[in-house]
Structure formats: structure tokens, C-alpha cells
Design a protein that fits this description.
428 residues; alpha/beta; Rossmann fold; five-stranded parallel β-sheet; histidinol dehydrogenase activity; amino-acid biosynthesis; NAD
Amino acid sequence: MNIIRYPKKEEWTGIIERPHMDVSSLNATVTAILDDVKTRGDKAIIEYEERFDHAQLASLTVTEEEMNEAEKLVSVNLKDAITLAHHNIKVFHESQRFDCRKVETQPGVTCWQKSVAIERVGLYIPGGTAPLFSTVLMLATPAKIAGCKDIILCTPPDRSGRVNPAILMAAKVAGVSHIFKAGGVQAIGAMAYGTESIPKVYKIFGPGNQYVMAAKQQVSLHDVAIDMPAGPSEVCVIADETANACFVAADLLSQAEHGTDSQVMMITTSEQMTSKVKAEIGRQLDMLPRKDIAAKTLENSRLILVDNIQDAIDLSNAYAPEHLIIQTDNYEDVAEKITNAGSVFLGKYACESAGDYASGTNHTLPTHGYAAAYSGVNLDSYCRKITFQHITAEGVRRIGPAVETMAAAESLDAHKNAMTVRMKSLEG
């Protein structure tokens, strides 16, 4: 890891810069696959599954028989863990239900909102070396609570044409409606356009590699909404002299093993902590099965020494991390000053892994600095807010003149007239 000592504020822009990948070369590939799926539907997806996932499929649909078989393959311990995590995620997201109330803005003018679930949503769950069954819980659970009628899940199969059993188990627990064997760009295209087997959805959720992210961004321009723009995973730790160096190192490595394009960062007020954490990272790294991935990630990562805790806070807010862990003596005071972060973990025992799996908060979060403008996935992500208004004769008298004046000022005479005819009807 790169150690940066007492950087000047004018140097912060360079420090918080993420690794950049040139995606221009893959956009043409993504566009071609999307167009093919749009044109040929299931046939195109089956061909791409054989080409990219090396699976020969007769059907894209996961059957009830496959669901039952998967349940038998999942260990009791893992079932219990999935059930616990689902419970906590459900409890947390149920607390986010919208409380509608009517507001009288003027006598005779009443306005309100109604929260309406998106009827059909699509969830993309990556497969590969680390099938993210936890993401099924994170995406499907709030969708079910929100009241989405159809929850469509796409995930790549293995070479034998089977979906990871834990993914299927999590989908059953969380209430997914339909599951399909489709990965990568072709899955995004299927949910965006619809095929013979896979329904078109109104919004797509879920992480993926650079091809998947590019596909989501492309289809979001014209065809379907997406959860948020996203990049590689990241974590920032704010630590003072009271932090546990072993814990900090473990937290940094937990993100570093995600992928070589991830980034981890520690901001500390303690020179001694910098040395301790670096030593711990070296010790723990050697024990990781994904050592090579984590080591590559660390090349883009930083240990930063600052003068005081306020500088640490300001630098973190400028970075706007996906995950922020605060291991300081006064972590609650520090947390109050955090304005840009996807999810914040307080105290030495709150590891980022807890939020990834089972504490209850959602782990689908804005990355790449988007936490400065975007929220992580929550109940509102699956809902639309429809506004209503009711205006009485008294309400017309109250706001009519203002409406006429404003419409006239914008030279929109028909707008003005729509109010004028109502005001005249009340004369006499």
C-alpha cells in the first residue's frame, strides 16, 4: 500500500482519485450483444450462455424441481444463516415504509403523495468464483416488502447448466417470483427488452463486472430504469490511536479480495497506527486464498496520515466512500460530521462484512464517489411516488390569481386560461 503523510488539501484531489478503466473498447461489444438479444430473444441468450458460461441450455427457466433439489444441497448451517440475515434485512427495510399524510397548502388546496410499488423488477446476481447469494437477499427482500408483483432474477449457470444452490435457496426465502439462467450482458438485455421466456422489467438492480455495468448504463438511456451507476467496490477506514490494527487490516483486506479494480483506504491521525496496520496487512494477506487478487488491489490503495480528526473527516467526505468504517475513540461524534458515504460502520466491532451479510442494512451501495449524490438501495428504490391534489372553489380563489400571473409571465396563455375559466365560473 502507498503511505501518504500529511498531504496538503490541494493534493487531496489526486489522492481520492479512483483507478480508471477504459471502457470505450467494450461498449461496441456490449451494444452488439444487446441488439442481438433484442432481435433474437431466447435463441441469442442460449448461444451466449454456451459461449461465455460454457453451459448448454435447453431452457432458461429454473424449474420447481431444481429449486427443491437445491434446497437439499444447502447445509443446515447456511440455511440458518440465510434465514437470520433475511429476518434482519426485512426488519430494517420494513422500518422504511412511507407514511403518507395530506397537507393543506392553502385553504381549499390539499396535496398528498401515494407510494406505489414498481410492478415488475429485475435482479441481476453475478455467478462466477463467488456467487453472491447474499445480494439476492439484499435486492429481493425490500422488493417483496415494497409490494412488487413480479420479482425476476437472472444469474449465470455453471458449466452443467445449474444455478448455485445457495442463490436458489436465498431466492426462495426472499420471495423471488421467477429465476432464469442468464448472465452478463445478455441477462441485462433480456430484462430490458423481454424475450420469449424472460419478461421485460421496469427497473434493473444488481452488481456485475464492467460489461454488465456498461450494459445497464446503455439500456437505461431508452428502455429501463436502473438502481444506480456503479463501479468497483471500496472501503475507507478512519482510525485514531485507539483503533485495533488487526481489525482495520482485516477490514481493508475484506474489500481488497473483491477484485483487482477495488480500492481500500485508511485515514489516520496516528503514525504508529500506520505502521501497525501495514504490518498486519502483510501478515493476514499470506493467509488468504484470494491473496493474489487482494495484493493487486493494494497497489491502488492508500494509508494516509493526517494532522487531526477533522482533516480525516473532510478527506473522507471528499472521497465519498461506498463503505466507511470509523474506528475512533469518539466515533459517534465523528459520524455526525459524515455527509458523503454509502454505509457507515461505527466502532471497532462493526466490520463491513456485517453489513454485507446479516446486520440488516443493504449492501447495494453507490461506489466511485457516487455516494455524494446517490443513496444505497432501500425501500424507496422499488417505489414510485404519485402526487395528488384536490382544489375546491375556495382553493381556486386563493391560488388562481397567482397561477394566472405566472402563466402569463411564461407566455403560456392556454395555461392561464385553464384557471381563468374556473375563476370566472365562480363570479357572481
